[in-house]
Fold this protein.
Amino acid sequence: MAGAREAIPPSYLEGYAAILGDVALTGRRLSRDEIAARRALGERAASEGVGLRDLVREHLIATRLAWRDLPDAAGARQVRSAAESVLAAAEQAVDALAEGYGRAQLFAVRRDEAARREFIDDLLHGRGDAGALAARAGRFGVRLAHSHAVAVARGPEPYDETHPVTRRTADALDGRFGRRLVLLTTKDGRLVCIAPGNEPEIVEYFAARVRAADPHGAWCVALGRAHPGPGGVTHSYHEALNALELADRMDLDAAVLRAADLLVFPVLTRDRQAMADLVRSVLGPLSEARGGAGPLVETLDAYFAAGCVATEAARRLSLSVRALTYRLSRIHRLTGADPADPLQRYTLQTAVIGARLLDWPARDL
């Protein structure tokens, strides 16, 4: 029935009326032990699921009943003074109850957050028994039997759980998709989003929101592919991390990197020795040029990135078209491979990619 109240267990009010009666007679305030006892009751109420509203209301009702008995307890001449004392004591009691209640809730939140972070860490790194991990996953709304995709965002500064960008991104994701559908955390200063693999729009939205949250920052967001099972989250997470590492090594300037678009690079580096042999045999002769191989490898990289359009490549390198053409001719003479020939161009471009991946010529092969 509307307006009906649920009574709290009598133990929460035990001794309260006696305290108020004594306060009315003596005018004293609550003792340290009495405040501690009320605070402990507040903590107990939070842990036992008693609502703070019900707890406060019942104490106010008890206070009103004590007020009604004031004339008998203190005498007519002292009613005003006793009433003030009772109200002050009630204020102390309710404040202590609320403090204890809030402290218990804060502890519960921190405990749940610690458990959540531990679960996500185990999930990202594939630690622990798969069965136990799946059992813990249900608490956070994750179904590990399904596929999941992981997105990792790296910004202009390290981020933690309390950073405004993290909070704004979390609020945006929760508002659109719901808290139990998305896991958002921070790891090594980066933002990490774990989402169901059958809803790719979530990681795409995550990528858009982190950049919108700090539009002037130099963001790079890597999207791992969706993979099934408990190990799928770990696989997708490492794909995203590898994409960020690849962006650094290859000087990729895309704001969003998709692991599905970068699959050729792991293939090329799977046989490191074969790739090193290709770089040495194809690009090794460039070391004979004045200034070494570095500027000529950079020229080839810009030329291929520009779609083999000389004017665009020259603009990217801040060169004249004539200077760029001279460099390409020099590369042809030294390597015997013509960047304008389709087959030879493929060999050169593969070797340049290998040089970037192996950090040649800065490092010896």
